[in-house]
Amino acid sequence: MFFRKPSPSQPQKPQPFATKSQSLSKLKETHITTINLSIKSTVFASFFIASCFLFLHFRHQKTTTTTSTTTTVTCNGSTPFYIYNLPPRFNLDLLNNCENLNIYMNMCPHVTNNGLGQPLSKPAWYATHQFLAEMIFHARLENHVCRTWDPNQAILFYIPFYGGLYSSSVFRQNNHALRDSLAVDLIDHIKKQPWFNRNNGRDHFITLGRTAWDFMRTETGHDFGANILLNLPPVKNMSVLTVERQPWKGKNQNGIPYPSYFHPKTKTEMLTWQEKVRQNDRPFLFSFIGGKRKGLGKAKIRDELVKQCNESTRCELVECGVGNSKCHQPMEVIGVMMKSRFCLQAPGDSFTRRSTFDAVVAGCIPVFFSPHTAYTQYAWYFPAERSKYSVYIEEGGVGKKRNLIEEVLMGISGEEVEKMREVVIGLIPRVSYWHPNGSDVGCFDAVDVALRGLAKVVRDNIGKN
Fold first, then answer.
1. pLDDT tens-digit profile of 195-212?
2. Which segments carry the region annotation Disordered (predicted)?
3. Domains of the chain and any CATH numbers
């Protein structure tokens, strides 16, 4: 069941770097009080709150009433959307077999709380699985202020298919017809809907919690278990939201953030967290949290990152692998990133990684080694000028000089680091998925940003025809 509402109703100055010989707590808490706020932080918070009030004022200026709900015409800069009431076999019924939704683990603990997973000890924090954006997105839209129950009022049409969960449950299915069956059935069902035929699906969208590669099986090449959902002609007319788009063939695909662990319900929770990461001590220049990969060309960079981080007294390394449980403990991961000024983001099994968004939530400046880890993926979410919030180091040159990464990062002035970190902290609301029961009184989260982007896509696509 989905959550329901009770009514329809500048960053601190650089500190000396720590070395690994120093004893540092992994989860050092920084207690923030109003009296200790810096002038810069206070101004930022005031601006943030004032912006939200202005946003609310304009959002509620003009409304249109339907038979079931009141839909905001402007919808915070987005547009009214309609959610298809799909047969439950396409979404909720899949959860009845949650222990078999992933060939590597039991997903039952992860699909609880509408995909947020198990609550952690801190309010607003959950042990969220990286591949459950489709569930979280669905739950957020169920209660969203822009939802309309009248398709005549809708500009966007949402298809709540849990394609990622289905795909992962049949990765080892050798019979391609069976592997593709639910996806094919879904499109057959949607094609029969009058609203799909109105614009040939160009105003429809689907959200997938896994990478686009998992839905674009080719006739040649290694068959790792993908199905053909995104190859189906009707789907190519739709907009596809996915945590990783195919950079070369994903014209109708738009990247959305991997879900991190922070899901606030109120502006206060968001502002408090932003201030915490702003004030937190960052004794390490950079950190890397990840494991090595075998036999993957794009992941060879990881060996070099582990090596350079291990050899540097200014780097904190959490090497993931058998026996290291820290990589699977959300607050351990966030704790390391909160002590770091820069967080290394190397490709792994695919170009992107959830760690990028964990780093942003922790106020840590991401360092990329492939443009496809972020720059070609999340245009709706990150600044177009990549140097404002991140560092890019060409992968091919990383191993040519000892501690090159350290030298590059040490070459960035403290003033520039402060500016970049402030941009990163400002990105936290837009890359976070707010709790489905979160107050409507808030600023854009990842779902709101996507709706605004989709509205533009639909206007452009339909306007051309």
1. 999 999 999 999 999 999
2. 1-20
3. 35-53+265-431 (3.40.50), 67-260+435-463 (no CATH)
Q: Give this prediction's pTM.
A: 0.83
Angle at which helix 414-431 crosses helix 267-279, to 10 degrees, equals: 160
Q: How confident is the model at residue 79 (pLDDT cuts 50, 70, 90)?
A: confident
Q: Which two tokens stand for residue 115?
A: 């995909």
Residue 104 pLDDT? 86
